[in-house]
Amino acid sequence: MEQEQTNLSDTFLTMTDSLSKYRRAELKDGNGNNLIEDLYVDPLENELILKSMLKDNTTLLMGRKGTGKSTIINRFQHEIRKSDNRLSLYIDVKALFEQTKKSYFNLQSNDIALSPANLDRLSLYVFFIEKIIDEIKEEIKSSVFKSQFKSFFSRDGITEKNFNKKLDELFKEVKKPFFVNSTASEQVINNDSDKEVKGKDNKISFGLGPKDLSLSGEMKESCLNEDLKSKQFTQVLTRFFDIIGFMNNLKKLLQSAGIERVFICLDDMSEIDKDSMEVFTDFIVGPLNNLSDEFFKFKISLYPGRDYLPSIDRQKVKTYSLDYYDLYSVGNVDKVEESAVKYTKRLLEKRFNYYFQGVDIGNFFDLSQVESMNDYYKIIFQMSSNVPRIIGKILEISLQKTNGFERKINKKVLQESARQHYKNDIEYVLTKSEYIEYKSYDEAFEKFHLLELLNILIAKAINNKKHIGSSTAKIFSQYTTNTAPSNYLYVTEATETILKTLEFNFFITKFSQQKDREGENISVFSLNYGLCVENNIIFDDKSDRKFRIERVFDFNRIVSDWMSNSQELICLSCNEQYDISKKEIFIDHKIACQKCQGVVALRSIIDKVQKEKIESNIKIPMKEYEILNALKNQGALTATDLGDELDRPYQSINHSIGKNSKIKNYDFIVREVISNQPRFSLSQNGQEYLNN
Prior knowledge:
- The protein has 4 domains: 2-19 and 333-425, no CATH class; 44-321, no CATH class; 435-617, no CATH class; 622-690, Winged helix-like DNA-binding domain superfamily/Winged helix DNA-binding domain (Arc Repressor Mutant, subunit A), CATH 1.10.10.10.
- It is built from 29 helices and 18 strands.
- It is globular, with a radius of gyration of 27 Å.
- Helix 5 runs parallel beside helix 27, helix 19 (441-470) runs antiparallel to helix 22 (556-566) and helix 26 crosses helix 27.
- The two termini are 44 Å apart.
- A 5-stranded parallel beta sheet has the order 2-8-9-1-10, with helices on both faces. A 3-stranded antiparallel beta sheet has the order 5-6-7.
- By secondary structure, the protein is α/β, with parallel strands linked by helices.
């Protein structure tokens, strides 16, 4: 019996891992067989997203972390590999950019008339584009001659050896620099709106050879002192890479091998900084997508609000937003929750059926406390916002809390698991911000102010619980101060953008969009379920449309007051301050400062006490703090385990725990070799650091 319980726990843990720790790595069974087709559950009925992905167009998958973007791409690639004339290439943009940042060369030359900062940035872009190009080559080599329908040695008359030889020559040619003279106005300045480098007659000579680079000529001092814009960098890069010629030649070569369409899957593209993303999309994605006569198309995963693709006509692109409200409100706004719960049910039933081979999922849950298993599907949806990774993590914690199924999972176990997941994986993003190394005080204070806003929202929700429970209003009559749900908040559509950072990090989630009692369009959010459990806030089970638009849930004034107290509208050049109510005029319409014509922007108000708090603590990069936090929650882990846990490539993990990392230099981690594998754990110093 004990052995049977152990086997059950081990299988359950494997099942939860398939949900919570799934990145690009393909799910495989003990024999190395790919499980993606057996386990894949499309967010839409009848696999509509997969079917759309398989069409010959560019597709964008938008969603927060863990919503299943990589899983959909993996399932799409698995299907494409069955085809003889279509090719799918996978590029982990985040992983390549991580490699680039720690190993790129620097174009040191007295002849380059660029500031050190611009030169350093140009070096990064050159090496990043080289990495992308090399990765495309390796993906093609590993894919073209692997079709089950073609001879391994020949495709349409071309042998693998000859194909690879031509491929190597083509990829060598694209990186072969060439010499061009151009004026600054043509090659550095794109247009007046981008003008950072001034002067129309500045001559620049790009001398590019196999081993060296030189930029020479007469450039005004502004070139040396002012930052180049992304479009200007893009134009400079055309002197390093003949991307259009490369595209046309690659297309001809692939067509000679019988390939009629190439899909390039770009995963985790939103994780690189905005400037680099702009350069990458303008220089690589745009030309291949727009100028190849439909030969190259992209499947791209992105975060909400980080979908900068200026070179692609969005009207010609199919976009799927995987966050549940955006996804399911398209069909029927009144059926959003119902559709989301159905997905949770399909996802869990397919996983349990595969891993437990016909054992009913209800055997793992205490059904005596609910009407049916559907009640558990609903509460798991509420706790996870329908994010597979969060579902996996909550179920993994639930396994621990039942002590390996000495008892079944019930509602209280799930609630405690949701609370622990919130404490482990979400809360620290804001509550530990004084320990995180940010680029500037502005970024650090943004986190402080967001924590203030979150605490204000929590305090209001706690007060709402008391108000609803003691109210004599008919709509509240069924509640007491101990049972009144108060997890909702709503704001106007215009105010919604202010809450996006809290939503992105799962402190809140959009629940619905409807009209308030005055007929105004509002966006309704729900506080995180685990946050509610932690703060004794009751989460609404009934989802009544009329209930959630009661005025007690109107948070517009609260958000507006917070905004006024946390940010200032100020000219970055002369420090002229404007009323924050005019932010739409200056920011949205890009109106210059009335005093000096400088840029007017929102800036976090710096609080003296908070500044002292920041300066008094040891600060480490966010990615290193995430590793410490994971080790605190999970115990000793390998670099691969850490990558799975944090959804990061192993290169990024190795960089964060390497000899130049702060957590290594501060002795916050311990490295031990266990069973011939290096494992990392928290040191005593690391534990004390996390405990303040």
